[in-house]
Amino acid sequence: MHLGRFRFFALLSAAFIAMALVSVDFAEARRGGSFGSRGFRTQQSAPPTRTAPNQTGPVERSMTPAPSTAPRQQQTAAQQQQRPGMFGGLGGGLMRGILIGGLFGMLLGYGFGGLAGALGFLVQLLLIGGLVWLAMAFFRSRRQPAVAGGARTQASAGGPGFGHSSMRDAAPQSSPKASAAGFTVPRIGGGAAAAAPQMTDIAVDQEDLDMFERRLGEVQRAFADEDHAALRRLSTPEMVSYFSEELADNAKRGVRNEVTGVKLLQADIAEAWNEGEDDYATAAFRYEATDVLRDRTTRALAGGVDEPTETVELWTFVRRNGGDWKLSAIQEAAA
Length: 335
Fold this sequence. Notes:
- The chain is α+β, with helices and mostly antiparallel strands.
- Among the domains are: 29-72 and 198-332, Roll (Nuclear Transport Factor 2, Chain: A); 86-131.
- The chain has helices at 2-27, 69-82, 89-143, 150-155, 167-170, 206-224, 228-234, 237-253, and strands at residues 34-36, 177-178, 184-185, 200-201, 255-275, 278-295, 301-304, 309-320, 326-332.
- The strands form 2 sheets. Strands 1, 4, 5, 6, 7, 8 and 9 form a 7-stranded antiparallel β-sheet that branches.
- The longest helix is centred in the middle third of the chain and has 55 residues, at 89-143.
- The radius of gyration is 30 Å and the shape is elongated.
């Protein structure tokens, strides 16, 4: 009786959670969030701007690996392998098994004799294991050569581009300069290139600003039309993969994302920099659009609000060797 009641409440709770997740999923037309890559600054927060005055966190979902995370994890794993602890490794497993077997022996009526026999067997294993360990340590010490210059090797293991302060931290602040298209372009301070030689601040001109504004509408239209060819032309392969994933999910659910009436209200440049062959620029957009989900068959409203709403996002663009700007990251600005 009690078991049946417990199962009933468990099934009821699971159904309630599933319905809550579905309702949240359909409440908003877009997933939002933060995805893409900003080069070496992917794990850095973009500076606040007039359009997005609150601090926006780093990109959450990216194919660009976080610096120094993997080496630290590998080092921790290596330390754990070298020092498995008292109950780690094969010896620890044998110890636990023998002790548990001895305790079971007492519980089954064999008294302390079962535990004593187990402890005697354990002592023999420890003696044999100690001899094996001493032999392995002796042969390992004869094989391992001495390493010269260890301190220099450790100091240069950080990798290029990481561990340096960014130029926007080192550059002196100055008053912004307004452009004709509504963008606010920050002035570039001098002397910052020495702080981060891999990243150099650059200036964007009016032609670049006009291109960013066009890209906002073009990407939204290509996504709403499910035009994969246009998305590949306007975005990086990483961004195309995220867009394609969301479009495939919409198709599986039988809905279509409609974005109409995109109108830029305010924009400014948060930062622009160069990384070798690539130029990056992060723009803060405040725009108005009608963003809804509709049923593919009946055209009925399936999510979102069927009226214009305002959105504030950070869009990062990248170009290689002076080519066309392509969308490389979208970040939902903090409210």
